[in-house]
Design goal:
Elements: H1 3-51, E1 53-56, E2 59-62, E3 78-84, E4 87-90, E5 111-117, E6 123-132, E7 141-149, H2 151-202, H3 217-264, H4 268-297, E8 303-304, H5 305-316, H6 320-323, E9 326-330, E10 336-337, H7 341-358, E11 362-370, E12 373-380, H8 390-394, H9 405-418, E13 422-427, E14 432-438
Parallel strand pairs: 9-11
Antiparallel strand pairs: 1-2, 3-4, 3-7, 5-6, 6-7, 8-10, 11-12, 12-14, 13-14
Helix pairs in contact: 1-2, 3-4, 4-9, 5-7, 7-9
């Protein structure tokens, strides 16, 4: 997954977990609040029970029961019970049941809250108080309890959660949207960094720069340092190439001078051998210099394909081979490749010269975009090249004939590869199509 998707997913999970814990905590708080309110209400009802006690001929009786009618309805949900020396008195709502109060030690006026199983297996919340009866009521200790069904409390908690759920869902959506907005704003510098690096590759920018957030400045600084080191290596490579050219120029001229002296002395065969060797050495040197120059410049330059092709064909049309051919150009205006114009001209020139030598009547130079690549093709209507010989022609020093066809293909291939592309050969109808695939 992308970095944005990972952060968004982690944020959504954290939000859901936090809201889930909040819902649980709020339900617990609400349940505790409801239970405290219920205990306070039962405390009032217990006081009413105590205030209504009277002693009659049969012992303690409740002359003035609490006003809530549920105490008088069998299994009505509210219950009271009195245990004293004279026995047990209980509300009509208990019917034929009794509150099974636990055995505990309560001082005078002590209060306990219990959860017990009541009539019909219902869970009850019971408030129990221990009192000492007055002499008017016969004296002695008594246990007075008031209970209510806990289902009412649980129902209130569920209703609270049901009412709270839509608001929590809305809050989750708002927080998730805020998280997405935060990610979009926070990760925008990374998108900008990617665009800046793309501009570096296309030659539209020279450095990443320092106008970045603090967290990205070390990355930008390291990239710029790498570019500086790369430029220094490039300069050294160009200097070595120039030194090589100058260093070999004098020995090659000396060889050609020696060949001229041999020819003047009548040793034509020896002169031809030396001249052939010198020319071969010059071709190899030129080729290696082209490779070094192209590799040094392919990362930070660009060329207009149409302009380079027009200039090149304007020259070729004035040559003997080019003058007899129909040259056609099919290149979209403004199409560019990541290659130095001189290197593109050299590669395209080598291919165009080969096509001019072998074409019968027509040569077509075309270009088209394919994803992040440009396909620059030269098609001639000549005899073509057998498929089993194409790989050897593109390889180092490969030649189709003594005119140097293979050397031109090899130079063009190595220029393309140094720029991150490749050269391909394919059949045309009729003839041959040579394609440079370039960034």
């Amino acid at each position: 997954m992308s970095l944005r998707m990972r952060l968004a997913l982690a944020g959504a999970i954290a939000i859901l977990a936090a809201l889930g814990l909040a819902a649980f905590g709020l339900s617990q708080l609400f349940g505790g609040h409801v239970e405290r309110r219920a205990v306070a209400e039962m405390s009032v009802q217990l006081d009413q029970v105590l205030a209504g006690l009277e002693r009659g001929e049969d012992g303690l009786t409740l002359a003035r029961p609490p006003a809530d009618p549920r105490f008088r309805q069998p299994y009505g949900g509210l219950y009271w019970q009195i245990e004293g020396a004279d026995g047990m008195q209980r509300s009509r709502s208990l019917w034929d049941s009794a509150l099974d109060l636990p055995v505990d030690d309560l001082g005078d006026g002590g209060i306990h809250v219990h959860r017990l199983i009541g009539p019909q297996g219902a869970t009850l919340l019971v408030l129990e108080r221990s009192v000492m009866l007055t002499a008017r009521l016969g004296g002695g200790p008594a246990r007075v309890a008031v209970g209510m069904e806990a289902a009412e409390l649980d129902a209130a908690r569920r209703a609270f959660i049901a009412d709270l759920a839509p608001y929590l869902g809305l809050l989750a959506l708002v927080l998730t949207g805020a998280g997405w907005a935060q990610l979009w704003i926070g990760l925008r510098p990374l998108q900008g960094l990617g665009a800046r690096i793309s501009a570096l590759r296309s030659g539209q920018a020279e450095r990443v720069g320092t106008d970045w957030p603090v967290e990205l400045r070390p990355v930008a600084g390291e990239i710029d340092a790498l570019l500086t080191a790369r430029e220094a290596e490039t300069d050294r490579a160009r200097a070595r190439a120039a030194d090589l050219a100058h260093g070999l120029k004098t020995p090659l001229q000396a060889l050609m001078g020696e060949a001229a002296r041999l020819r003047a002395a009548g040793a034509d065969q020896q002169a031809d051998g030396i001249e052939d060797t010198a020319r071969a050495m010059r071709r190899i040197v030129d080729r290696e210099l082209a490779r070094a120059r192209t590799a040094a410049r392919a990362s930070d330059v660009s060329a207009d394909v149409g302009q380079v092709a027009e200039r090149l064909l304007a020259v070729l049309r004035r040559t003997p081979d080019g003058d007899r051919l129909d040259w056609r150009i099919d290149i979209p205006q403004g199409m560019r490749v990541a290659l130095d114009p001189a290197d593109l001209s050299e590669a395209l020139g080598a291919l165009a010269e080969n096509a001019a030598r072998h074409a019968i009547s027509c040569v077509t130079v075309s270009a088209r975009a394919q994803e992040a690549r440009t396909l620059l093709s030269i098609t001639d209507d000549g005899p073509g090249i057998p498929a089993d010989r194409r790989a050897a022609l593109i390889a180092r020093h490969g030649r189709a004939d003594e005119t140097g066809t293979g050397l031109g293909l090899a130079i063009a291939a190595e220029i393309a590869e140094a720029a991150g592309g490749k050269l391909t050969l394919s059949d045309a109808a009729p003839g041959l199509t040579v394609t440079l695939v370039l960034p």
